[in-house]
Design brief:
- This protein is α+β, with helices and mostly antiparallel strands.
- It has one domain: Hypothetical protein yfbM fold.
- Helix content is 43%, strand content 19%.
- The chain is built from six helices and five strands.
- The protein has a five-stranded antiparallel sheet.
- A hairpin with a 5-residue loop joins strand 3 and strand 4.
- Helix 2 crosses helix 4, helix 2 crosses helix 5 and helix 5 crosses helix 6.
- The longest helix is centred in the C-terminal third of the chain and has 20 residues.
- The chain starts with a strand and ends with a strand.
Amino acid sequence: MGVLSDVFVADREEAEQVDPALGPSGELPTYQAKSLDPVILGQLESAITGLPYEQLSRSLVGVHFESSEGESGVHDVRPALVEALAGLSEERIVSVAARWSEAEEWYGASGPDLEPLVRGLAGLARKAVEVDKGLWVWWSL
């Protein structure tokens, strides 16, 4: 089934109000996905920016909250990735998705499989930038 992961727009205060066991409420702009962890998001940033993943992997998560059971939580998305996603043109989505699909964590997903996800994340990042907020990921096992 994979890890559930909702990406949402919030500032730090709003993110801290999200119950890590339940996820974001309907009041926050959200994009539902699966399997978006810091590693795969670092792979996405590498696919967009061309920076080596090894360079990015040193600082994939800055802020992280977990439920008391440790089966769900909230973490931030690197501001550099938010900016890169917000600036991603429709024309580049196909090539970024194809490059991102090469990450072994996707277990054989193709570029066309990932295009809707890249498109959705880019749209959400644009909303975050417009309101001067960040992106956060709620995850649950």
